[in-house]
Amino acid sequence: MGALEKRLSGLPADIVRTAPEDLASHLTDWRGAKQGRAEMLLLPRNTSDVVEIVRWAAANRVGLVPQGGNTGLVGGSVPEPDPSGPVAVLSLRRMDAISPADPAGLSMVAEAGAILANVHTAAEAAGCRFPLSLGARGSATVGGLVSTNAGGVQVLRHGNMRSLVLGLEAVLPDGSILDQLTALRKDNTGYDIKQLLIGAEGTLGVVTRVALKLSPALAHRSIGWAGLASPKEALALLKRLRAAAGEVVESFELMAGAAVELTFDHAPNIRPPLAGAHDYHVLIELGAKASVLESVLAAAIEAGEVQDATIAQSETQGEAFWSIRETIPEAEKRQGKTIKNDISIAVADLPAFHAEALALLQQKYPGARPFVFGHLGDGNLHWNIRVPVDAPEGWLATEGEAARISLHDLLMRYRGSISAEHGIGTLKAAELGRLGNPGKLAAMRAIKSALDPLGIMNPGKLFA
């Protein structure tokens, strides 16, 4: 019996895959930028299987890389290319059950492998909604959303995933089950251990089931699109919206003109909402009647803050507006190599930071092109940098990383964050070590050491 066969003994045969064709799609990330290596793929059917797997991994010193939809952008769900020991990918995709929603308690329980789009459908069937949405909703899973503390386009009103988890069940590195799977709105009984698992990127345990916080269905919904000159004017428009509509601003998405135009090049079936070119665009969604949005946009145009605007006249047209925003990442991926930067900053500081970042890029990295879009309302921009058209071979590996570091250094002057919603993974581990608060990093390492002394949970992630 070979070494691999010996290690596999004790696991149910139905959950183990070792064929290269079964492993292939689990060993690379969505961008195709990282290629990892693992000896096996494990496909648990339920929490009991996960317990068996974790205990087996601890006994055999096998690293476990938990994986949901594998749509992350920082390498958190992909094994290392050269792991220090045997590694298995632990895919939760078979654990995809969703319980009926509780409309009275506005809650729902879903297994970690449940697809976000299916959660939306199940909530809507009960007259509710799960207010977290992102472009990868057709493949992103509940477990992945929890483990990365995902954000998306509705954080402005509803918060990120941390705000939408009422309770969870997880298997800890010693094989014990953390059972906080309740829909309680109040539970003041000491440490809230589940919060350690949210955003931990699978380094402290395996999330298996989640109690989700739902919201009532919207009585009214209006969607608008505006063209304007800069983020400064966009922020002025957001202030107008909040003054007129209160806390019903669901989404406020900023997109540079270059990002919007790229979607038209790569998806010719998408039609521009406005005539003419604009340096920046804003996509707005309100949980209010269209008349509210119409009056705010009219006032902003009269004040010179908005150059042009339109309001969707139907649900179909509104979804067409959203398709432009959601096509941007795919269009960017097809266009070529890009330096990804998922940053956050105080909303009031965002226009000044953006202007400084543009000047910095032009001065230090001529030819590099900013590619900016994101959630202005909560201070989170994807401040990406496209490689110069005539860049020599190897520019991305040398100048590209230097450009990322320069942007992060500027960000630190504004007391911002190098990761708003995508996590750390391996892509940003070195930068977290360089820029992170020493006290916080010490506490993180102490928690990791206490809960996972063998280091089997998602090895190589978070810590450089």
Could you give a short description of this structure?
By secondary structure, the chain is of the alpha+beta class.
What is the topology?
Layout: H1 3-8, E1 16-17, H2 20-23, E2 40-42, H3 47-60, E3 63-67, E4 87-91, E5 107-111, H4 116-125, E6 128-129, H5 142-147, H6 155-158, E7 165-171, E8 177-180, H7 194-197, E9 206-213, E10 215-216, E11 222-228, H8 231-245, E12 249-256, H9 257-266, E13 280-286, H10 290-302, E14 308-311, H11 315-335, E15 338-339, E16 342-344, H12 350-364, E17 369-375, E18 380-386, H13 395-413, H14 429-435, H15 438-451
Parallel strand pairs: 2-4, 3-4
Antiparallel strand pairs: 1-2, 5-9, 6-10, 7-8, 7-9, 11-13, 11-14, 12-13, 12-17, 15-18, 16-18, 17-18
Outline type: globular
Q: Give the oligomer, counting copies of the same chain as homo and different chains as hetero.
A: single chain
How many strands in all? 18
Count, helices: 15
Structural class by sheet pairing and helices: alpha+beta
Largest sheet: 8 strands, antiparallel
- Percent of residues in helices comes to 25-40%
Unreliable runs, pLDDT <50, ≥5 residues?
none
User: Could you tell me how far the N terminus lies from the C terminus, measured between alpha carbons in angstroms?
Assistant: 36 Å
Question: Radius of gyration, rounded?
Answer: 23 Å
Approximately how much beta-strand content do the residues carry? Answer: 15-25%
